[in-house]
């Protein structure tokens, strides 16, 4: 059983690590001090269960953990420092709660009880995906696919597009961080690599068609101007200020798609440096859409996907080679 220990106190985390390692079958794979690092550690380490002892009397800690717990799908054993925390924890998405001792009162019987409760909640837990996200999408029919990438993006996007096959039923909008003058060459290269799908630089006012990829030009934001009555997106190239020094920005594209398509929006965030796309992924999720972010194991740079995971914007986390098949599963439902 692989366990992550999450507690504000480094001393408490050390006590748990030292004592639980004595139990056969229990493996402590990570120790983290807050909810944000917990979310990232889940993706990196794929635990079976979480032991959490955050101080919920602190309002900021409580709100952070509440946000995490509502989207988490892994079993959680919550260790409350007081009766007040015990009551608070039961209002959250935790499997079981128990009081934890004072620092000088930990004894073998307490850890025996922890071990027993871990076995209990693991046996009762349904199977989950490794990322901690529910992999069953909504019943919505997807009408658009958006892709964002930065460092290492061209080869990643090429692999994903090739895997979509011919006659892909959705228009694909693609934002890539690219230098001025390199966008046309990149679009031509992708078009030559991906014979199954048509790749062009997006034009202002253009209607986006299925089985076509519309790439944002260098130094212009690609957004959706409006959606026609039949669901067809009409594109707009914007000269708005760069977002975090980036134009085109993945966030701009993703937020635009979420605004018009809500639960019918499907987005993929691939390898890249920085945080672009994280906020956009979160907005898509909040609107009921679906997001897939690339797993660390196949990223050239894990920055953008990691930021989306930490922001709560990743519905699924998949290695690059699995993303195309998952997209096809989702759009053919």
UniProtKB/TrEMBL annotation:
Catalytic activity, EC: 3.1.1.61
Catalysis performed (reactions): [protein]-L-glutamate 5-O-methyl ester + H2O = L-glutamyl-[protein] + methanol + H(+)
Domain spans labelled Response regulatory: 2-115
Residue intervals of the CheB-type methylesterase domain: 138-333
Active site per database record: 150, 177, 276
Keywords from the named record: Chemotaxis, Cytoplasm, Hydrolase
GO biological process, one term: chemotaxis
UniProt cross-references to PANTHER family, sorted A to Z: PROTEIN-GLUTAMATE METHYLESTERASE/PROTEIN-GLUTAMINE GLUTAMINASE, PROTEIN-GLUTAMATE METHYLESTERASE_PROTEIN-GLUTAMINE GLUTAMINASE
Protein name: protein-glutamate methylesterase
């Amino acid at each position: 059983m692989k366990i992550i220990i999450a507690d504000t106190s480094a001393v408490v985390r050390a006590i748990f690590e030292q004592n639980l390692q004595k139990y056969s079958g229990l493996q402590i794979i990570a120790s983290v001090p807050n909810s944000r690092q917990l979310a990232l550690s889940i993706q990196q380490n794929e635990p079976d269960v979480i032991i959490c002892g955050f101080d919920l009397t602190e309002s900021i800690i409580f709100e952070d953990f509440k946000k995490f717990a509502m989207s988490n799908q892994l079993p959680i054993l919550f260790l409350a420092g007081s009766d007040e925390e015990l009551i608070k924890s039961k209002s959250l998405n935790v499997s079981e709660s128990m009081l934890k001792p004072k620092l000088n009162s930990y004894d073998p019987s307490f850890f025996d009880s922890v071990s027993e409760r871990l076995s209990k909640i693991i046996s009762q837990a349904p199977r989950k995906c490794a990322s901690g996200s529910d992999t069953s999408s909504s019943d919505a029919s997807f009408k658009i696919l958006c892709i964002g990438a930065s460092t290492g993006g061209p080869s990643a996007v090429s692999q994903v597009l090739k895997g979509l096959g011919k006659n892909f039923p959705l228009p694909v909008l693609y934002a890539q961080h690219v230098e001025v003058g390199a966008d046309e060459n990149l679009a031509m290269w992708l078009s030559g690599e991906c014979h199954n799908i048509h790749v062009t630089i997006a034009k202002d006012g253009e209607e986006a068609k299925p089985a076509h990829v519309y790439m944002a030009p260098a130094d212009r934001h690609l957004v959706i101007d409006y959606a026609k009555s039949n669901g067809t997106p009409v594109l707009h190239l914007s000269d708005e200020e760069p977002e975090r020094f980036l134009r085109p920005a993945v966030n701009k594209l993703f937020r635009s798609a979420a605004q018009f398509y809500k639960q019918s929006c499907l987005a993929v965030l691939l390898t890249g440096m920085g945080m672009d796309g994280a906020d956009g992924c979160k907005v898509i999720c909040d609107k009921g859409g679906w997001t897939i972010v690339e797993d660390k194991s196949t990223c050239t740079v894990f920055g953008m996907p990691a930021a989306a995971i930490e922001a709560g914007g990743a519905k699924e986390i998949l290695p690059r080679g699995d993303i195309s098949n998952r997209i096809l599963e989702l759009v053919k439902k």
